[in-house]
Amino acid sequence: MSKKSFRQAINEALRQEMRRDPTVILMGEDVAGGRGGSAGTQDAWGGVLGVTKGLYEEFGETRVLDTPITEASYIGAAAGAAVTGLRPVAELMFVDFVGCCLDQIMNQAAKFRYMFGGKARTPLVIRAMYGAGFNAAAQHSQALYPLFTHIPGLKVVIPSSPYEAKGLLISAIRDDDPVIFLENKVMYDVEEEVPDEPYAIPFGEANLTREGDDVTIVAFGRMVGMANEAADRLAKKGIGCTVIDPRTTSPLDSETILDCVADTGRLVIVDESSPRCNMATDIAALVAEQAFDSLRAPIRRVVPPHTPVPFATVLETLYLPSVEKIEAAVTATMNHRVTEKV
Amino acid sequence: MQIARETLLRSYRAMRTIRMFEERLHVEFATGEIPGFVHLYCGEEASAVGVCANLTDNDTIASTHRGHGHCIAKGVEVAGMMAEIYGRSTGVCRGKGGSMHIADLACGMLGANGIVGGGPPLICGAALSHKTLRDGGVAVAFYGDGASNEGTTLESLNLASVWQLPAVFVVEDNGYGEATAASFACAGTQKARAAGFGMPYIECDGSDYFAVHEAAGEAIAHARAGKGPVMLHVHLQRWYGHFEGDAMTYRAPNEVAEAKRDHDCLKLFRERVTQAGLFEDSVLDEVDAAVTDEIEAAVLQAKDAPLPQSADLLADVYVRY
């Protein structure tokens, strides 16, 4: 056990799984970074933000494959390799680039098993960065997990910390279904204690990061940290919050969410993806349908406005959920008074 | 090139099976009993069979929405295919794929594909598996002249060349992408495209089984030897519409009749092998009779087979969820 960054935790998961299983390969744009350059340094980058640094050195060019900047061909190749005996981990860099290769994910990898009558296994992992907060603007900042969650056949993982990232990525690589693994780009330098040995965190089992009696907060990825901080502040004011990190949006641990809402009667959902048809609306529908009688106040959603992600810091800050916005939503739900019908 | 007698007989049987499978579907589809769409491969049989005669079960192919011929040529079982097209639970995909998604990974058939240009990227991946696992296999993408313009195809030609993959890209050029002529939709030439990606290019007459067999043999041997990908351009004519029900008013009235008269791969094959004294007509007639029985049995079985159960709706979305 030692302190590791989100970046190091992901790198360690990849390294350990590649050592364990020779069919695990990496591919993507600049995952080695520097192939064919004039300086002779074949792994200059190790990924655009250094997440795969050192893996080319250890595993060589047959296991760590740089690709041209052609997402459709190499994401499709990863799908094709996955149904023919390899366990590819393909890096899409920014999740926004899914616009260039959605067919390969949505119509091919996700559907093989069902279309082929259960006769295919597609052990594919697609890693990608998501999220605002990096001044990367509209084409490099989206949180597109609802898009993937919508597609049957895909599993969708959103780790909220370095510990979670390592254990969930190991599960993703060992999984026999296609998995979309989304890393919030603002979190790469976040550090915490992470075990040195490999460990797997199962999908579809939510983690309670705070426990309290008054309000349930469901948050995803980077939002979990904000929700924890809001819960800590609110605890000092005497408001107890349970914070749920679902870990995966598909499968979704709806049981834990419903159980917690039954206990607290109040629900706030924190989701940094665009507000229409996102996880917050999905969970609101789930709770409205299955836990209506438990609710003591309207469900509150802390979500961005229905706009592209802006560039300027002042606008991007306004765009994103924040600790303060979560606190305000929790306070509002606590202050709600049911009006008796006449 | 000398082709073994048993290979020739197997190939003739495969071509005849495709022809009769498709002709029968043409008839059965018109009765309204077959759900969805079917896209028939008649007229193009020598392409799938001439290529696949050079492949083993260890090799991989990806197909198109016009996929029945590739399936049969790669060894997918005919009764299971027919049942699939009828939407029965005994189908190769248990009635959940249909005509456009017939696949059988056990014999290296990665699937017909409902998406134009869907196959070439997958074939890059299959070729990467063959290369990484060092199993000696080759991966072959069949795609049409329409798909040759898709970005996925062009990206795949590049990727296969960059990674030096054991892949063959077979452009089945029947002159039409849906209703639009290749002469309108394809800029430049396939040959120049292959050259642009630094890969060898071979072309052949797709109505001549022997020409396809030889050209494909050369392309596949090149890829199998680790020398990188090859483009094989096969010139073809399709005898039916883009899909069943297409009146083909975009084609000259005599176009198909002339194709059937002058470019029927089965007729040409029979002439060649009988004239060369390789087979008596009676041997080929026996094959035709056996195939007729096989197709008849497949249709009867399919019509009789059980429909999927309601529980099947939810099955096999995931390995585990």
UniProtKB/TrEMBL annotation, chain A:
Protein name: Alpha-ketoacid dehydrogenase subunit beta
CDD domains: TPP_PYR_E1-PDHc-beta_like
Keywords of the record: Oxidoreductase
SUPFAM superfamilies: Thiamin diphosphate-binding fold (THDP-binding) (SSF52518), TK C-terminal domain-like (SSF52922)
Any one GO MF annotation of this record: oxidoreductase activity
Top-level taxon of the source organism: Bacteria
Pfam families reported for this sequence: Transket_pyr, Transketolase_C
Automatic annotation (TrEMBL), chain B:
Keywords in alphabetical order: Oxidoreductase, Thiamine pyrophosphate
Cofactor(s) required, per the database record: thiamine diphosphate
Signal peptide limits: none
Keyword Oxidoreductase: yes
Catalysed transformations (reactions): N(6)-[(R)-lipoyl]-L-lysyl-[protein] + pyruvate + H(+) = N(6)-[(R)-S(8)-acetyldihydrolipoyl]-L-lysyl-[protein] + CO2
Annotated SUPFAM superfamilies: Thiamin diphosphate-binding fold (THDP-binding) (SSF52518)
Pfam families xrefs: E1_dh
GO MF annotation list: pyruvate dehydrogenase (acetyl-transferring) activity
GO process terms (BP): pyruvate decarboxylation to acetyl-CoA
Superkingdom of source: Bacteria
InterPro entries per the UniProt record, alphabetical: DH_E1 (IPR001017), PDH_E1_Alpha_Subunit (IPR050642), THDP-binding (IPR029061)
Transmembrane segments: none
Described purpose of this protein according to its UniProt entry: The pyruvate dehydrogenase complex catalyzes the overall conversion of pyruvate to acetyl-CoA and CO(2). It contains multiple copies of three enzymatic components: pyruvate dehydrogenase (E1), dihydrolipoamide acetyltransferase (E2) and lipoamide dehydrogenase (E3).
PANTHER family: PYRUVATE DEHYDROGENASE E1 COMPONENT SUBUNIT ALPHA, PYRUVATE DEHYDROGENASE E1 COMPONENT, ALPHA SUBUNIT BACTERIAL AND ORGANELLAR
Name by which UniProt lists this protein: ABC transporter substrate-binding protein
Originating organism: Komagataeibacter xylinus
